[in-house]
Structures are given as structure tokens and as C-alpha cells.
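User: Before I run my own analysis I want an independent prediction to cross-check against. Here's the chain; please return only the C-alpha cells and, at the end, one sentence I can use as a sanity check.
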Amino acid sequence: MESITKTPITNHTEYSWHQHCWDYFVQARTSEHVPHAILLTGENGIGKLALANKMAKSLLCMQPNTETALFEACDTCQSCKTYDSGANPDYTSVSLLQDKQQIGVDQIRELSEFLNYSRSFNTYRVVLLNPVERMNTNAANSLLKSLEEPARNTVLILIASQLSKILPTIKSRCQILSLATPTKSQSLEWLKLNVPELINPEQKLRMASGKPLFAMDIKVEDIEDRESFMGDLLSVIEYSKSVVEVAKSWEKYDFATLLNWQISSLQEMIKLTASGKIDTLDDADKYNKILSQLAKKISTEHKWQLYQQLINQKHYIHTSVNALMFVESMILLWLQAR
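Assistant: C-alpha cells:
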């Protein structure tokens, strides 16, 4: 089973914004009505995988906590130890294979075989599938069979960032748990506790569109690159650089990163324009100066249109679209919004 992995991601970090979903999980376990399929949704960068693994380990644990931290795994039983070592026979996960853009039907067929195995411990059998929206059509249809005829004492935990891309028939057979994006204060508190050495956490959190797990990985070079890219967009709008010239400079950069920079910057522009604070940005900050100049060149109505157009561009990230053409199309959207 080379396409299925046994190795979980263990993480003992606490995420305060997970509490609502965890409370539902605890209630389901308390009432002994754990759904056979949980669809955990939410934006990237907020710890969905960590929460899914916490749930998985709890279900596999032979003696979960029943007093203080309800239903958290004990970390000491044989099932927990084998889970942490990546060798628990009652657990498996399915994800994108290296160099693949989609989860294939063969992976789901292997998963179906796993579901027919006998359990080794007297707990649950657990499957984690991430990201579920990246299954191809045949894989999705194959998964439906397992959801329609759930195996006894088996829980499938599906993770998705784009709920709209999942078949309605799959969604209807799952208990959907929506994980909220943390507030700014929650994110900054989490970064302070978990990455105390992080420099400029507010700036990095802003650059990460409020996603704390993304913010902790942002480097100084990333900040400089975003400033440079947004400056190039301003140059195109001011007609001091051509679309082709700028596109050639950025065609080798990660598409998703370029899109996220633009989307997060537009979100800031819209909020600041609506609050009347766009003129209060500190001109000594290079990024703020660029943001202010861009905001003044695009009307509020066009900002919203541009925002939606950039969101739509995400559909092409995982396709074989020509790199130069893709970057050109993004830049042209800004020029047209002027």
C-alpha cells in the first residue's frame, strides 16, 4: 500500500479557536454518537490537520481521559504509542502522492481494502483523508461507496479547504464541522506562546491574511518579495512597466503565493477604504505606501470585482496552465480595474 501512509502528524500545541469543534467531538463521544464520517473544513493555515489528528488519536486511544481534558488521548497505552510511531494498524491516511495534483481512484480502492481489515485494538478504526477536494471524479465516486455502507466502529475524517469543490453526495453523508479562522488577538497570542522568537509577528500575520500557521513560516525575503511584486503591479497601473515585463519577472514564482499576496492586499485596501483610514498609512513603510497608492487608483466597486476575479483564478492553480500566461492574466486584471 505505497499510496497510503501510516505516519500521523503528532502535535501537542493548543489552538484556542479549535475549541468549538472539539466540544462537538467530545459531546458526540459522550453520547456515543460519533458520526462515521466527519468533514472538517476551514481555511488553510489554521490547524485543521492538527485537530484532525487530535481526533484520530482520541478515537484510537484505549483509555482516553474522562476527567479533566475529556477524551484527549492518554499517550501511554499501546494504541497511542503505535500511533505516535506511525505503526498503528487501525489507522491510515490518504493524501496527495508526490508530484501528483489529484488523489486517484487506486488510493481510494486501497483504502476500501483497509476498511475490511479486523481491528487490532478494541477501539475505532480511523481514516484521515486530506485534502478531500483534490480527489478526481473516479476517486470521489469510489469513496461514496464507503460512505454509503460505513464499516462498524470506523470513522473517516475528511479535511477540506474548499467545501464548494466537494460532491454534494459526499457532503450529505458527513457531519460537517467548520473551523473558524482565528481572530487577530487569538493569532497573535498563539504566535507569542509558540514562536516567541518571531520578529514582526503583526506584519507577518497581516501578510499571511491572518493565518497564524502561515505567519510563523514567513521570512524576511518573503516580505521583501511581496513588496517588490506589489510595487510591480503599481508600476503596471502607472504605465511605467509593461505587463509582459513584469510577468516574465514572476512567472517562476509559486502561483498560490502570488495570488494570496494580491487577495490579502485587496482585503486590506477594502477594509481601510471603508473605514476612511487609507490616508493614515505610514508612508515610511514601503508596503503601506504601495498599498495606499494602489487603493487610490482603483474604485471601491472595482476593488470588489478584482477581488472576486482573483479568487476565481485559484481554480487554475493546480492545472497545467502556462506559467507566463497565468501571471499575465493576473496582472491584466489589475490594469483593467484601474
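Sanity check: The chain has a mean pLDDT of 88.
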